[in-house]
Amino acid sequence: MPLDDYKIARYKNLSGGWVAEISAIAGCHALMPTREEALTELAGVFEMISEEYAERQQILPVEPC
Q: Which domain holds residue 37?
């Protein structure tokens, strides 16, 4: 599944940064100083996780309904 098929949660962290995460995929989150940086970092994390799943010949988790 491509990144666009997932719901991305964005919220301000209590310590001052921004979090972007895909809750359907364990470990797929990013914490950065700005919202835009968090989204950019999340895209990189998603790509890395996608590659790991592909190497193991596994399917990424599906977004729950």
A: 3-55
Residue 63 falls inside a structural domain: no
60 occurs within a structural domain: no
What gap in Å lies between CA 49 and CA 47, rounded to an integer? Answer: 5
Q: What is the pTM of this model?
A: 0.90
Q: Give pLDDT tens digits for 1-38.
A: 899 999 999 999 988 899 999 999 999 999 999 999 99
The DSSP H or E segment spanning 29 is: strand 29-32
Cα distance from N-terminal residue to C-terminal residue, the chain: 15
**Side-by-side strand order, sheet with 9-12:** 9-12, 18-21, 29-32
> For the chain, how many structural domains are there in total?
1
